[in-house]
Amino acid sequence: MRITCPCCGERGLDEFSYRGDATLSRPAGDPPLPGAGAEAWAEYVYLRDNPSGPHRELWYHGAGCRSWLVVTRNTRTHEILDTERAVNVVRATRKDAEA
Amino acid sequence: MSPFDAAPTQSPTPGPTPSGSRPRQPTQPFRLAEGGLIDRDTLVRFHFDGRDFTGHPGDTLASALLANGVRLVGRSFKYHRPRGILSAGPEEPNALVELRTGPRREPNTRATTIELFDGLEASSQNRFPSLRHDLLSINGLLSPILTAGFYYKTFMWPAAFWEKLYEPIIRRAAGLGRAADEADPDHYEKATAFCDVLVVGAGPAGLAAALTAGRAGARVILCEDDAQPGGRLLAEQLSLDGRPARDWVRDALAELGAMPEVRVMSRTTVFGTYDGGTYGALEHVTDHLAATAPHLPRQVLWRIVARRCVLAAGAIERPVVFPGNDRPGIMLAGAVRTYINRFGVAPGRKAVVFANNDDAMRTVADLAKAGIAVAAVVDSRAAPSATSRDAARDAGARLIAGGQVTRAIGGRALTAVRIRDAAGREDIVPCDLLAMSGGWNPNVHLTTHHGGRPEYIASLCAFVPSVLPPGMGVAGMAAGVAGTAAALADGSRAGAEAATACGFATSPLSMPSVPAEPSGIEPLWHTLSAFGGAAGKAFVDFQNDVTAKDIGLARQEGFRAVEHLKRYTTLGMATDQGKTANVNALAIMAELTGRTIPETGTTLIRPPVQPIAIGALAGPHRGGHFKPARLTPTHDWATELGATFTAAGLWQRAQWFARPGDAGWQETVNREVTAVRTAVGICDVTTLGKIDIQGPDAAAFLERVYANAWKKLPVGRARYGLMLREDGFVFDDGTTARLGDTQYVMTTTTANAGPVMQHLEFCHQWLWPDYDVRMISVTDQWAQIAVAGPKSRDVLRQIVDTAYDLSNDAFPYMAAAEITICGGQKARLFRLSFSGELAYEIAVPARFGDALVRRLMQSGAPFGITPYGTEALGVLRIEKGHPAGPELNGQTTAHDLGMGRLLSTRKDFVGRAMAQRPALTDPARPTLVGLRPVAPHDVLPAGAHLLPKGSPATAASDQGWVSSAAWSPSVGSWIGLGLLSNGPARHGEIVCAHDPLGGRVVEVEIVPPVFVDPTGERLHA
After folding, report:
1. Which residues does A contribute to its contact with B (CB < 8 Å)?
2. What is the mean pLDDT of residues B431-440?
3. Which spans does this entry mark as compositional bias, Low complexity (chain B) (predicted)?
4. CA distance B617 to B610
């Protein structure tokens, strides 16, 4: 498999490591505000979908620029449809939420 | 001659004999007078089963054996049937030999792909005591119980007999070659190549594709399995533009060779299609040489990354299934032509050609031209084509239209075939060679590795690729495009398409004129009137000895799906993966079940296309090269002292420093521990992970990644930090020092240096991207040495520059500072202690680590300074009750380790929410305790389980385990740390430590985990 890192260009699979689903977001946990409920945390930590088709997932370019990436991969074909820096994805998501 | 007489295959014609003492054979009696791509002026000597033979450069072992009249080359897997040479390529199921001797002995090597070299030694396999007289051929008589599924049915009872009796016997009787007994002395490499267009196969289609793409300027890699590119162009009597085809091949290769962007790789098998245009290929670099060449690997495993791929892998001819179709002398029709035309070898003296297609009729002409008598041409088609009629007439052979070969006759060699004509009349025709063809199977393997199933084309009687992996095109016979002219045109088209897709402007190849090549075909899979009759074994899978009767049995017992058929009969599961067997098998299953071939379907084909040696997959990563060794900055110094080293992940760490006179390692470790407790010791702790964290939000970031509080840590102080995973379990621990307003240096455990770095990056880039903080690993940049013991301050005073006050008030426990030593050398000093003694860790840039340790030894000599290793380090920390790897095992919580109070309630941090789950703080969870045997000298085994006294040693009464244990010279007893249910509430209780592996039970007292200086006076001295 080949992944195109936005910083480093196209590289072989062995430079990357896989983490998992990039569509999950960490529940709020800031004291003294009440944190999210146990159910939300259990879902975030343990429950995963097993989608067939395009899937957004987190990869780490550990043998390259050390960027965390959001890779859109077709789980049926291993086709890589898109690669973004994770930090940019989070920032864009927050901007959308604020707007 | 009666057809039942054995035909002499080793004719006793005298010939010139080479010098030497082994029994001589006549020189190549079956070598044709002319023709072939061999160097007739050079003789190559080789040995097969201990006999000397000669061949020529350009021969394969198979062609050289045939030239010498050797046609019996092996015994079959299950029934020990005599077997010869079926094919002339990598699909060979029968002619498997052990190649070379000693540590280089390689089993199951195909004689049809072994290039002959001087001194080659090969032997036949699976025979006892000799190939000609194989006692185990009585397995053939046992065949009623050796049929499909015999493993599952025959040896089921009594069950205990299976392992000790049945399996060893079956394994001896059935099997292939023997692996070498010694380690592989050769070396292997791995390499990566990039190109625009990868062309697989250098036959007419592949050469045309490479020429078209290469002329357009594309970067092309052309891989050819064979030593000589050309494919069928080398094997046929064929003229292109009126010249021999091999001349066209030579010109094409010369042109490709002159293109700077084109690389032709012969002896290279592309064995797998992987994701993203990545292909696996194996290059045989020195396999064809008599001796290993210096500085050359035996094989190179290539990863080829190609933007486009043209698969031009050609096709493999199908055998026909009939009783006795495995007798030596029965050969694929195309292989017969290869031996005649490419190798100048007569595969027999008197031939019968049996086929269902026009292509095989070339064999008739080639046999006749080579002077080999053609006794009969058996064309299974009811209305034979003009091609068949012409071929038979020109060869002076009898044409049996609508006929079939119903049985092969002979023992160790073919002596005759039984023929049935269209009217049902039977006849026996003596012959020593049967050239058979059931048509051609396109080599679709590389198109199926992404799950694509090939599609059946009835007019071709073959499966062709349908859904292709991204970026792949197929050309020539691999796509079912028959004939040289069509293959050339199709290859050029595919090459142009691939190059165009890569952005190159292409122009079509000018096509040479090629005589017409008829390829008409009508289906024929077998000539059996009934499956499972008494007519004799009709083999479908030669290598795994699967017969048509076995397929009938599989159907009868309900294994009708092709994947079930495969597993029940082992069809297609041998080293050849059924390349000559699978299509015949599923055609027979279709017939038996009344389904069409497309309805029956194919099995899924997975990589590799050809067998790959494990050595090639391992490449250079073996022995000491399996993983890199990381050496500490003081490694040379420790080596000089005679230290014993131990592996900690990739690191090599000093385990202890034995001195002359030490009675054993225990005495050495005791001495080192005592030195730290009473004087001063030093230990390299460079291997702990070090991460430099800087930025205005560094403290806020630490608040998130550590479970405990960080905001109030002043500059110049360090603090213990506990890191959790998001599921609430302990991830790692270490100390982090604040060196400046916005600068921290974190330490991690040795094992987790990499994972913690990755985790911090995740937190920073994904969870909290707004923090203004940066981090980098500095593990390799700083050498760090622990100086521990009551005299440690005195030693440091000798090297720390006088401007720095080391008194307890000025530099207390957990102080951290950037200082200078030895007159201006920059260093970092931390007052940290893993041993519980007054102790420091001093860090210098890594290149000064060696100088620092030598200076410490020198300055510390008057104070009795003693180097200590990881073993003493372990004893010291157990004595002090510090958790380490065995306690931080990924299954323990802060509560389990007695650190529940560290978890902050005033902030969010990774693991906070989940750590609050009641089950994770349940007192009944195994919790950290100290352990002390009631008898101090009772060895306390780490890993032993803790059970209440008097309870049975069952899982139900298990209450915990001993995580760490050591002899403590300070306490004068064995001591240990353990995790015990309700542990802290049970101090003073006696429990039993059960060690079923060592067969020991030790009574131990539950005690607080800190054995030495529980009030911490020494720490703060």
Report:
1. 1-3, 12-13, 17, 19, 26-27, 29-32, 35-36, 38, 41, 44-46, 58, 60, 62, 66-68, 77-80, 85-87, 90-91
2. 98
3. 18-27
4. 13
